[in-house]
Amino acid sequence: MMKKRIFTAMLVLLLGTAAGCGGQTAASALPENMPDDFAIRYANWIDPAAPNVYDTGAGLVQKDLADPQGQPTAQAALTVTDQTRQAIYDKLRACALDRLTDAPLHAADTGMSPLTEYEITFTAGGQSYTVTGDSTAQIRAENDPDAAAFCDFVQYMDTLYRDSPAYQSLPPAVGGYD
Predict the structure, then answer these.
(1) Are 137 and 115 in contact (CB under 8 A)?
(2) What is the CATH number of domain 2-168?
(3) What phi and psi values does residue 34 have, to the nearest 5 degrees?
(4) What is the pTM for the complete model shown?
(5) For residues 94 and 90, what is the distance between their CA atoms, to the nearest angstrom?
(6) What is the rounded average pLDDT for all residues in the chain?
(7) C-alpha to C-alpha distance for 82 and 29, rounded to whole angstroms
(8) pLDDT at residue 19 is higher than 60
(9) What residues does each domain of the chain span?
(10) How far is residue 120's CA from residue 153's CA, in Å, rounded to a whole number?
């Protein structure tokens, strides 16, 4: 009976975390219903010349092949269902990413190498937003609700990107950091 209660409590906690976002306290100003023009471009990179990209507006996935001697990236067409767009929009609202455009989500002179950079650009209701940050936000996530929300959204998009059939169709990275 005790094991069942622990399992149920863990399941409720997990589902609550999946629906919400990393401790974000400020509410999103985005409309509750997803605007027809909603599109997102999620990019991350170690080498700025070869970003990984998940772009619903352009219908494109791009992968860094980490190949200094050959082709730096590979691309595939991305098809996104309305349900996936809605799920991304709901997560974006839960994380209040529209409120993080001026948040300090990266650190200067970290000495961290490799350092992953992120740029999330989205359009909703005729308004465009850009949120930038880097992997140092993870260090601050425990004490900074904005950094926690950013990291939660980044993790969500990384999973969506890597699990997409478009990404799965691309060749493996040659070396480096895949």
Answers:
(1) no
(2) 3.30.1560.10
(3) -65, 125
(4) 0.84
(5) 6
(6) 84
(7) 22
(8) no
(9) 2-168
(10) 10
